[in-house]
Write a structure and sequence with these properties.
This protein is an alpha/beta fold. It has a single domain, classed as Glutaconate Coenzyme A-transferase (3-Layer(aba) Sandwich), CATH 3.40.1080. The protein contains 7 helices and 14 strands. The strands form 3 sheets. It has an 8-stranded parallel sheet with strand order 1-14-12-9-2-3-4-5. Strands 6-8-7 form a 3-stranded antiparallel sheet. The chain has a 3-stranded mixed sheet with strand order 11-10-13, with no helix packed on it.
Length: 224
């Protein structure tokens, strides 16, 4: 029988290596997979590409990723810290030590959805004529300028869920759901930390991510 449960964070992060691309779900500070973020820091890998909504909370929970310059690129829709003096990644951006691809939030989600759906690229009017889209291919549709955006895929996706079953079906609570489904589809290995794992299959109407898109489940009942 399929059993996607893992017992430790080391098992959850097995196979990650230097140069990996990692999607991390969560909106701002809500719905973050804090245990898995800390496990990424503990894995001692570098030259990482992080794909996530906000960089600030990575610095909160896994500061060594930036202080040890283990992140070479970030794709994000929010990259401001609390203040210049306390934001290591902003200083690295200014010094050219960290590459940032800043993406409008809707485009960010759609690029991952495209990656999970086998769509290599798509046109969108979002950002046309702004600095965010400088250097990207543009084309008019019905007189409206649109920008060609490419799909995003990743080696790993780290997510937070509420309940999962042993087959990898996951149910979210509240803001945990934000980017989770598209990230799971667009990653080679999707890892979800949850409050509890059910021995019985989840009811179909409570499943937010089908187990076909999830490779590893880690129960972390004491983390909130």
């Amino acid at each position: 029988m399929i059993d996607k449960r893992v017992e430790t964070t080391e098992e959850a992060m097995a196979g990650i290596a230097d140069g990996a691309s990692v999607m991390i779900s969560g909106f701002g500070g809500a719905g973050l997979p804090v245990v898995l973020i800390k496990a990424l820091e503990a894995a001692s890998v570098g030259n990482l590409t992080l794909i996530l909504n906000s960089l600030r909370f990575i610095e909160t929970y896994a500061p060594r990723l930036f202080s040890e310059q283990r992140v070479s690129k970030a794709i994000s829709s929010a990259a401001r810290g609390r203040g210049r003096d306390s934001s290591e990644y902003e200083l690295q951006l200014e010094k050219g030590l960290l590459e940032l691809e800043l993406v409008p939030q809707g485009t960010f989600a759609e690029r991952m959805r495209a990656g999970g759906s086998g769509i290599p690229a798509f046109y969108t009017p979002t950002g046309a004529g702004t600095k965010l889209t400088e250097g990207k291919e543009a084309r008019d549709f019905d007189g409206r300028p649109c920008i060609l955006e490419t799909a995003i895929r990743a080696d790993f996706a780290l997510m937070r869920g509420s309940v999962a079953d042993r087959w990898g079906n996951v149910s979210f609570r509240g803001t945990q759901s934000n980017f989770g489904p598209v990230m799971a589809m667009a990653a080679d290995i999707a890892v979800v930390e949850v409050d509890e794992v059910s021995e019985e299959p989840l009811p179909p109407n409570s499943i937010d991510i089908p187990g076909i898109f999830v490779q590893r489940i880690l129960a972390v009942p004491d983390e909130r």
